[in-house]
C-alpha cells in the first residue's frame, strides 16, 4: 500500500517535467526561398501570452537532410518547430546552428534531439562556454518565470561543435559560411551565410524593425555587424526577430544606430546627461516609434552609447 503514494508522486513528478502543455500554439512556416523555411515568431519579450516563443526558427532543406537555425526557446517551442518542419520534408535534421547564447534561440535544441538524436549542434565557442558556465540555467529559469511555468521540462542541449569566423560547413551540397563576432549583440554571435542562395541568417545582430536589447553586447560591435551584413549583399536577410526581407531592413537598423550614436555624441560633448538626451533623441527617431521594444530599449541604448564614448 505504501507504494501507491510513491507511484502518485512519480507520476506527478513526470507530469511536471513534461511541462503544463505539450507544445506552444502552432505558427505557420513560410517558404521564403527554394528549400528555405522560416517561422516568423511574434515580436516582444517572453510572456504568458506568447508562451515564451518569440524568435524566428528556420530550416534549409539540402540534398541529404535538413539544417535548422535557432529552433526556439523551450522544449515546447521546439516541438512546434519539429511539427512544422515535418510538413515540409521527410528528410531528417542533420545539423543545427545556434546563433548566440540567448536561450530564446536555442533551448528548442532538446526537441530536435528528441526527434533526431544524431543531429550535430553547432555554435560560437563563447556561446558553448557560457552555456556550460551557467547561462543555460539562467535562461531556463527566465523562460519559466516569464511564462509562469509554461516552459517547465526544458533541458539544455548545449552545442558541441565550435564555429569559427570564416569557417565553411559543406552540408548536403550547400555552403554555410560563418561570420562571427565577440563584441556584437551578445558577444557570442554567428551570422550564417547560405552562399549559393545568397541568404544571410543574421541572428540578433540584425532585427527587422525592432529596437534591440543590448544588455549583453556593445553598441559599436552591433554597428560593425550591421555594416558587415550589408557588405555581404545578400538577396534575402532572415533576422532573429521580425519579418525577413531584402537589405532595406538592415539599412533601417543602420539608420537607427547612426542617428542615435551621432546625437548622443553631440549632446555628450555639450555636457548633457542621458535623461536630457532621451526626449531629443526620441524626437529624432520618431519615425521608428512603432517598432517593438521602443520603450524599454531606447533609454538603455542611450546609456550604453554614453559609456562607450567615455571609454574612447
Please name the defining characteristics of this protein.
312 residues; alpha/beta; Metallo-beta-lactamase, Chain A; 7-stranded mixed β-sheet; 8 helices; 40% helix; globular; disordered N terminus
Q: What's the end-to-end separation, in Å?
A: 72 Å
- Figure out the total of helices: 8
- The CATH architecture of the domain at 23-214 and 235-245 can be named as 4-Layer Sandwich
User: CATH superfamily name of the domain at 23-214 and 235-245?
Assistant: Ribonuclease Z/Hydroxyacylglutathione hydrolase-like
Strand content: 15-25%
Q: Which CATH C-level class of the domain at 23-214 and 235-245 is it?
A: Alpha Beta
Spatial strand arrangement across the major sheet = 1-2-3-4-5-6-7
Uncertain regions: pLDDT < 50 for 5+ in a row?
Answer: 1-18
Query: Roughly what percent helix?
Result: 25-40%
Main sheet summary: 7 strands, mixed
